[in-house]
Amino acid sequence: MAKNKLTYRNNGYWFLLPALLVVAFIFLNPIIRMFLFSLEGWKYLRPTGFNNFENYLALLTDPHFYGTLSNNVIIIIGVVPAVIVISLTFAQAIFGKIPGYSLYTFLFFIPVVLPDIVVAKILTEVLNKAGPLNDFFNWLGLGFLDQDWLGAPGLSLFTIIVSLIWKNIGFALLLFLARLTTVDISIYEAAEIDGASATQKFFFITIPMLASTISVYVVLQVIGLMSFLFSYIHVMTAGGPGYSSTVLEYFIYLNTFRLQEIGVGSAAGMILIVITMIFIYNYLFASRKKAAKAQEIR
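Given the sequence above, the corresponding structure tokens read:
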């Protein structure tokens, strides 16, 4: 019986095989070609043959490369914790049915449904030196807040971070609310009977219940902040001033299409893939280890 069940299960994979082959071709073919491009020298958009990993050496000796990587790290550190804290706070409040909770959910979710390029364009118009934000500060008599939010070296990356926080709160809020709706309400009622305050319920009930959801969100967000920032950088700051707001994804674009250093751009792309895969592998390894430990306890 067990053997028949195993055979039946294995037969199911044969039905998946055609789709898996198509997906593998779509995703693996560009990666393989990019890896081959990274091993070749290029002149006038034509390969000149194997160049002994010179593209990788040029990349690793380029100070701008490390600067772009550090910008990615700064964005991740600035965006992910802020989004989680804000989203958790509002998710708990909305779950408690505060007045106007439907309106808050709607307002937070508007940026999520808008395309990234639209959000970036709107924020560019609002935040530029002659934009309405600075006009508003001057109208309030707060002229010292009139800044070149997108053009100043010390502010451009900060502006990108704040913009990404605003854009991503809605998705995290929806994710956390969906998980909260599955929590047994009697747990909160029992805590209230025992005299637990709202803060205690938040830290000792809500956060533990959302721990797995938070970890999944962190993985998704880190992958997104490593690989899907092109629209914001290209529209809002074009990586500038200088390289002060350039991230690795935009660095690949600059080298490949602006400087026509296809080999260097491909090498940077391969490094981005390796970094992302290492992060995903570590997350999966930690998750399996945690699940195995929980199974042992049971």
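The CA atoms of residues 56 and 73 lie 21 Å apart. Try to locate this feature in the token string yourself.
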